């Protein structure tokens, strides 16, 4: 069994409400289902990395974020890659070509990205026990290490 489908099943649904307070965020899973992110520990830090295949800085940042997040102790911080407004096959081909391991979902019309304040890509929405915030990218490895440390990442490597 491949790693990302197992992780997706374990991570979904995650509990958090949108910053605007309009209910749970909803994303399309690559298998056609809906990932509504409702039901997991509200104290667990979460990073939603919004990206697109046509965005070179998104790809660079996503690969750095994946590496840095993988160095955290398991279960400390959850990172989900959210593709903005591209079709399933384009996302699948890209994911396979770049051998990415992050959980990936789609924001088919870009509605959730805009709802959270996105105006450009890459865009990151971070939820933690003290609230939420946004970061626009790209961010390098040292910047992501600092963000992850603030969220309670204990580096294992």
CATH architecture designation: 3-Layer(aba) Sandwich
Assembly state (oligomeric): single chain
CATH superfamily: Glutaredoxin
Number of strands: 7
**CATH fold title:** Glutaredoxin
Rounded mean pLDDT score: 81
Shape: globular
Assigned CATH class: Alpha Beta
Alpha plus pi helix count: 5
Give the CA-CA distance, first to last residue.
25 Å
* Cα gyration radius (Å): 14 Å
Identify the strand order in the major beta sheet.
2-1-5-4-3-6-7
Query: Helical content, roughly?
Result: 25-40%
- What share of residues are in beta strands? 15-25%
Order of helices and strands: HEEEHEHEHEEH
Helix-strand category: alpha/beta
Largest sheet: 7 strands, mixed
**What's the number of structural domains?**
1
């Amino acid at each position: 069994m491949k790693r990302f489908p197992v992780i997706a099943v374990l991570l979904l649904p995650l509990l958090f409400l949108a910053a605007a307070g309009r209910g749970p965020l909803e994303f399309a899973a690559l298998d056609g289902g809906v990932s509504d992110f409702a039901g997991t520990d509200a104290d667990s830090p979460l990073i939603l990395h919004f990206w697109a295949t046509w965005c070179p800085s998104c790809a660079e940042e996503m690969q750095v974020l994946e590496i840095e997040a993988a160095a955290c102790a398991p279960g400390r911080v959850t990172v989900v890659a959210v593709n903005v407004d591209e079709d399933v096959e384009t996302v699948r081909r890209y994911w396979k070509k770049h051998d990415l391991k992050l959980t990936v979902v789609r924001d088919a019309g870009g509605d959730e990205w805009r709802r959270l304040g996105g105006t450009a890509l890459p865009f990151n929405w971070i939820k933690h026990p003290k609230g939420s915030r946004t970061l626009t990218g790209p961010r390098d490895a040292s910047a992501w290490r600092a963000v992850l440390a603030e969220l309670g990442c204990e580096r294992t490597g």
